[in-house]
Amino acid sequence: FDPRHYLGTHCYGLPKTGPHRLRFLLESVKDLRETLKKKGSTLVVRKGKPEDVVHDLITQLGSVTAVVFHEEVREIL
């Protein structure tokens, strides 16, 4: 979870993620973790800036051969 997604926007000061969306995200992550656990896997969840968290996780794991991610689409104003 990137803390920057829970701050106000640069245009209107409104939250990027309100309480209803946050609840949905948390429930979705919990459900995904439970589903993966039933299949013998797990889900790593971290809080922080992705550029820092991913680096730290790769360092911790040591034998990472690939990293896959998505980039959020941003509106151009």
From TrEMBL:
<keyword id="KW-0157">Chromophore</keyword>
<dbReference type="InterPro" id="IPR014729">
    <property type="entry name" value="Rossmann-like_a/b/a_fold"/>
</dbReference>
<dbReference type="GO" id="GO:0000719">
    <property type="term" value="P:photoreactive repair"/>
</dbReference>
<protein>
    <submittedName>
        <fullName>CRYD protein</fullName>
    </submittedName>
</protein>
<dbReference type="GO" id="GO:0071949">
    <property type="term" value="F:FAD binding"/>
</dbReference>
<feature type="domain" description="Photolyase/cryptochrome alpha/beta">
    <location>
        <begin position="1"/>
        <end position="77"/>
    </location>
</feature>
<dbReference type="Pfam" id="PF00875">
    <property type="entry name" value="DNA_photolyase"/>
</dbReference>
<dbReference type="InterPro" id="IPR002081">
    <property type="entry name" value="Cryptochrome/DNA_photolyase_1"/>
</dbReference>
<dbReference type="GO" id="GO:0003904">
    <property type="term" value="F:deoxyribodipyrimidine photo-lyase activity"/>
</dbReference>
<dbReference type="GO" id="GO:0003684">
    <property type="term" value="F:damaged DNA binding"/>
</dbReference>
<dbReference type="InterPro" id="IPR036155">
    <property type="entry name" value="Crypto/Photolyase_N_sf"/>
</dbReference>
<dbReference type="InterPro" id="IPR006050">
    <property type="entry name" value="DNA_photolyase_N"/>
</dbReference>
